[in-house]
Amino acid sequence: MVTTEVIVIGSGIAALTTALEASERKHVILITKSELRHSNSYLAQGGIAAALSSQDGVSLHKKDTLSAGQHYNKVKAVEKLVQKAPSAIADLIRSGMQFDRDHDGSLMLGMEGAHSVRRILHSHGDGTGRYMMEHLIECLKSTSVQVIENEAAVELIIGEDESCIGVKTLDRSGKLAVFHAERTVLATGGCGSLYRYTSNSQTVSGDGIALAFKAGAKVRDMEFIQFHPTLLFKNNKAAGLVSEAVRGDGALLVTEAGLPIMEGVHHLKDLAPRHIVAQTIFSYIQRGEKVFLDISMIKDFKNRFPTVSSLCEKNGVDLQLGKIPVAPGNHFLMGGIEVDERGQTSVPSLYAVGEVACTGVHGANRLASNSLLEGLVFGKALGGLLAHMQSRELPKEKEGTQGFAHLASLPDLPVLQEKLMNEAGIVRTGAGLTRLKNYLETFDIESLLDMDVSGRSLTEITKANTIIVAWLIAESALTRTESRGGHFRSDHPSEDDSLWLKKSVILACQDVKNRVKGRWRYEYIEA
Ligand code: SIN
Predict the structure, then answer these.
(1) Is residue 212 situated within a structural domain?
(2) Which of 119, 130, 274, 366 is catalytic?
């Protein structure tokens, strides 16, 4: 058994930034189920937003963030994000990070959908995520942070005082390890790979959310999922992201016959809000029509978009033809583990940061290029806070769950992915969500929540976690009887401010062992 001051679980920008900051004064162990170069942040093609130009300001960045979020955002969290953005970027540049610059040496600022002005920084064009992560990985080398790769967190350990006192992990050989820590941080990302079509890394399967929920943490806004309109679609599979910046440079969404599909749908046409573009493409695909990005008007495409170009080449798409086949898919989870303004979850000494956390900063729909920024700003703040926290004596471990669950009948991931895509995807209905929830409940969610992980394989635990997260999405989406941002229900197609603007679906399973008559506890709380 290992004991440390801070454990960070994850390998994206939020995880690394938190670990770097906390390590200024604490011993930090960073644990990732895959490798440091394996995360959504590493794949990010969009850039990082900050109000840096003379035409811009934090109030305008705030306005754009709130309007993308359909004003469901937590305003204080948005203010923190936009106010801290310029200094966080300046710190990053001081530490050696290189962003793309104009001929005169000034930072090159790009435009993306729903931003009022140019404010997106890039590194090597569409390689921003990769270059930012390489920079942070380099910074990590000169710290005392201990990095453990290929070890998956499978259970949070709860003390007799109900605080989180660490985590149990499984390595690739199936060996269980116990890490005790004064403070534990979840930075495991969203749940993209639960959907058939996704831009996410296949390792991003919502396990941090399942772990926290099982440990009693509140989980909120799970119905709000952003579907990116343009994933490369080849051989009936989504093969990666085709950045919105391609449309920002003039590419048009067209049918096989070349007819523009966004004409007459929204005044911003191809740069309309993501959910509108995604829903439009989806309606064509459902009718059996293919949709393409016409890139023929973009000069020097390969130099401008090296990451998209190599993705196309790898997947046998000939760029000379000027058309990239696309389909929409899961891109970003706005909901997640509920945290306060300090990143604290409802379980003492358990923190969450980045996409796995729900700070309320993105509201019902995230503004493009605000997610690397969220990881950076909230990671810096949380790491700084942890660095200055007083040491604490760890209490004894609370008696763990002893429950048994029948896992043999749990579906393989492709079966679940198909169901989520169809019933809790771009267009949802009450009937479809009820079908999904009923299906998931046949696997006895309570026994999955109560399950003792010892003796279980990583595949079994992962399957159980995916069912729990899918259930959280289905339950939340069924409860919200309106459409807002990333949550669209064709049976409730409008926003219903009077009922829902100030209301959040928050689910909690506070004490599985003491649950009332076999029901876990959940609440619908005013925001
Ligand atoms: C993109 O490049 O289209 C994705 C950017 C983002 O989602 O922030």
Answers:
(1) no
(2) 274
